[in-house]
Amino acid sequence: MREVFVYSNGKIYKEGSKKPLKHKKLLGCHNNYQITLSNSCDVFLKQGTGASDYADVISKSLCDEVGVKCADCDLVLMKDFPQVDEKKKMNFEEYKDFCKSNFHIEDINKIEQYYNNYLAIMEKERVHNAVVSYDYKIDEPYNNAQIIKLDELVCAYCNVTGSDGTYAIETYNKIANELVSDSVIGKKLRKQLKIKKHVDLSSDFDLDLKKIALLGYATCQMDMSSHNLHLALIRNGKNYKLEVAPLFDNGESFNLASLNDENLTKEDVDAINSTSKEYGNALTLKESANMNAHQQLIDLAEEMRLNPELYEFYKKLKSVDIEHICDKEIDKQDLDVVKHAVISVYEERMFLLEQEYNRQNKEFDTLLGRKGSSYQSLKDRGKLDIDLNIKR
Question: 112 φ, ψ to 5°?
Answer without folding.
Answer: -65, -40
